[in-house]
Amino acid sequence: VAIMRSASRMGYTLSVFKRDHHSVGIIGAPFSKGQPRGGVEKGPNVIRSAGLADKLKAQGCSVKDYGNLCFEEVPGDEPVGRVKRPGAVGSANQRLAHAVYTAKTEGHTPLMLGGDHSLAIGSIHGHAAAIPGDLSVVWVDAHADINTPLTTPTGNVHGQSMSYLIRELQSKIPVIPQFSWIKPCVSAKDIVYIGLRDVDPEEHYILKYLGIKVFSMTEVDGLGIARVMEETCDYLFSHVKKPIHLSYDIDAIDPSLTPATGTPAVGGLTYREGVYITEHICQTGLLSAVDLVEVNPQQGTTEAQVQSTVDIAVDVLLGCFGRRRAGNHPADYCLPEP
Ligand SMILES: [Mn+2]
């Protein structure tokens, strides 16, 4: 049952689908070659081991776990220009795109567990191919991940993912044969960044050049997270309500809380802000696919650091699929009679 209600003093109307039932399709993507650190390929299994599927089911979701994708070794995977491991990154993302497309067309909301953030290329690509119109992207991250192959200071593709996907940037992207299957599928106006605080000068230029909507940590501090989310939805819904692809890098959250990640940056989101983002997006009824990336259990120095990172990743995901901190109950619950 879809209940329409006016949900904002800014004047947009949220369509709040009273769904106690999300159908989640978990896709494990144990891939680490979009960056140099080992361990991030263990992300999918450590997040599963924290009880993700059971917790989703306990809050009324149905869950299909597609398991972990197998990624091929690519021998002689030499850089193309500055871009490192283009063969491995290209083929892993092509495989992931197909898996996300399949999960989506089978009626699930794909939940991609990374792995590093280069996987957003395949995840967003597969999602876009499975829906009739355009999608919008909410990118929650300390970093913009929008360097082109020509501006990247490191060559690591996890810092370039968005550049391959944005239509308006394609004249600046050189040919990389291993990426020739990628079709840019997102418009700059359909992207919102939240949580930025470590942006390269070239990336800052690209964001301005394309007019991309950014709520950096400065805006989170100045406006508060509730206003940021309200403005995010006003902006994305101003013309047509498109399905939302949420790409959530765990390093958006402050590294005091989520230290087990490859590129931590001080001054991040609190636990409450990090979860509020997902609660708000869930309430729109438009969440169509989710990535949770960059959980790296080898980057924690203690077991407690790893546990904290993984537990928060799970809470972020539960928020995406209906958990409310006010509490939940099944729609058909009846109080026991004495
Ligand atoms: Mn990222």
How would you summarize this macromolecular structure in one to three sentences?
It comes from Gadus morhua (Atlantic cod). The chain is α/β, with parallel strands linked by helices. The chain is 31% helix and 16% strand.
What's the average pLDDT? 94
Order of helices and strands: EEEHHEHEHEEHEHHEHEH
- With strands numbered from the N-terminus, the spatial order across the biggest sheet is 4-3-5-10-9-6-7-8
Multimerization state: single chain
Radius of gyration: 19 Å
Based on CA inertia axes, which overall geometry fits? globular
Structural class: alpha/beta
Helix content: 25-40%
Number of helices: 9
Give the uncertain stretches in residue-range form: 1-19
| Straight-line N-to-C gap | 32 Å
Q: What small-molecule ligands were found?
A: manganese (II) ion
Q: How many β-strand stretches?
A: 10
Largest sheet: 8 strands, parallel
Strand content: 15-25%
Please specify the SSE layout and strand pairing.
Elements: E1 2-6, E2 13-17, E3 23-29, H1 43-49, H2 52-58, E4 62-68, H3 86-105, E5 109-114, H4 120-130, E6 136-140, E7 191-194, H5 201-209, E8 213-215, H6 217-223, H7 225-236, E9 244-249, H8 271-284, E10 287-293, H9 303-320
Parallel strand pairs: 3-4, 3-5, 5-10, 6-7, 6-9, 7-8, 9-10
Antiparallel strand pairs: 1-2
Helix pairs in contact: 3-4, 6-7, 7-8, 8-9
The structure holds manganese (II) ion (MN).
